[in-house]
């Protein structure tokens, strides 16, 4: 089976001249022919007439290039270059000229429903900032480079979303929600690798929407709340133990009161209840004796 090889088209500079200069030359040449047309032999008049027609055909070679735009030139289907010089330009009238915008553009994907690497269904969307860097590739390597950008950006987003978990489940893990800059860099690299062949450069790609899918949103919300409660309790217990240790140490060092082990245990229990309780405690004052 014969392998078909395709040569990649790379942007080159197309032939063009200043339109103001060429317009001046055409006007001067036309006027000279008209002024010298009288008194010439018939054969010379015919030759000058055809010369005048050819000169006036050059008016078809004028075109305008706006800032941040390029004109792709083709001759009978063959690519002959790209003109990026701004202003009024002139080129060979037989060249077909296609306008390509070089301005920076935004593409926002729809909300895609995918599974993260833990198998949890999530909703995710992205915003891609891009521009055309190679006009020849954008025109000849893909059928419609704008549609190509949208489809490949969504494909890159799906692939990236399945490579990371929605949230951190293990220490040191990179997650979609907790590491936005790392995820943005990875997404930008993924999209750029897919759009390289279309002559498109990706300036930035960021996640614009991220959430659990509706069918598991409530369950995952309870899980997040439970995780937050556990983390808060750990901090509370850690602080309470430190305060109890400090209280016992100061009571002993300052000689305020001497407590045996049983009384220390009771005091520790009472302080932990006070410090770790969800509601305010109601103390019972013993006014009869020390214990």
From TrEMBL:
Annotated compartments: Membrane
Which UniProt keywords are given for this protein, alphabetically ordered? Answer: Membrane, Transmembrane, Transmembrane helix
Record GO cellular component, one term: membrane
**Band domain boundaries:** 60-224
| Matching InterPro entries | Band_7, Band_7/SPFH_dom_sf
Q: What SUPFAM superfamilies does UniProt report for this protein, alphabetically?
A: Band 7/SPFH domain
Stated name of the protein = SPFH domain-containing protein
Q: Name one Pfam family in it.
A: Band_7
Tell me how this protein sits in the membrane.
Single-pass membrane protein
Segments spanning the bilayer are: 17-35, 47-65
**Major subcellular location class:** membrane
């Amino acid at each position: 089976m014969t392998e078909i090889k395709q040569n990649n088209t790379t942007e080159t500079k197309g032939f063009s001249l200043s339109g103001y200069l060429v317009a001046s030359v055409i006007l001067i040449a036309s006027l000279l022919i008209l002024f010298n047309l009288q008194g010439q032999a018939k054969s010379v008049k015919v030759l000058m007439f055809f010369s005048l027609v050819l000169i006036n055909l050059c008016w078809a070679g004028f075109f305008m290039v706006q800032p941040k735009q390029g004109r792709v030139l083709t001759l009978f289907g063959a690519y002959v270059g790209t003109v990026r010089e701004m202003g009024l330009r002139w080129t060979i009238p037989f060249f077909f000229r296609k306008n390509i915008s070089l301005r920076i553009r935004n593409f926002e994907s729809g909300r895609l429903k995918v599974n993260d690497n833990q198998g949890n269904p999530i909703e995710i969307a992205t915003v891609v900032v891009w521009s055309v860097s190679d006009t020849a590739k954008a025109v000849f390597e893909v059928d419609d480079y704008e549609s190509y950008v949208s489809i490949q950006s969504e494909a890159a987003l799906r692939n990236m979303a399945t490579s990371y978990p929605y949230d951190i489940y293990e220490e040191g893990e990179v997650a979609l929600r907790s590491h936005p800059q790392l995820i943005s860099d990875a997404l930008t690299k993924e999209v750029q690798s897919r759009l390289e062949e279309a002559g498109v450069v990706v300036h930035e790609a960021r996640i614009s929407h991220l959430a659990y899918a509706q069918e598991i949103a409530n369950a995952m919300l309870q899980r997040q709340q439970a995780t937050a409660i556990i983390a808060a309790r750990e901090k509370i217990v850690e602080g309470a133990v430190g305060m109890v240790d400090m209280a016992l140490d100061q009571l002993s060092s300052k000689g305020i009161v001497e407590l045996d082990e049983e009384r220390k245990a009771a005091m520790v229990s009472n302080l932990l209840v006070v410090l770790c309780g969800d509601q305010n405690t109601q103390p019972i004052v013993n006014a009869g004796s020390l214990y």
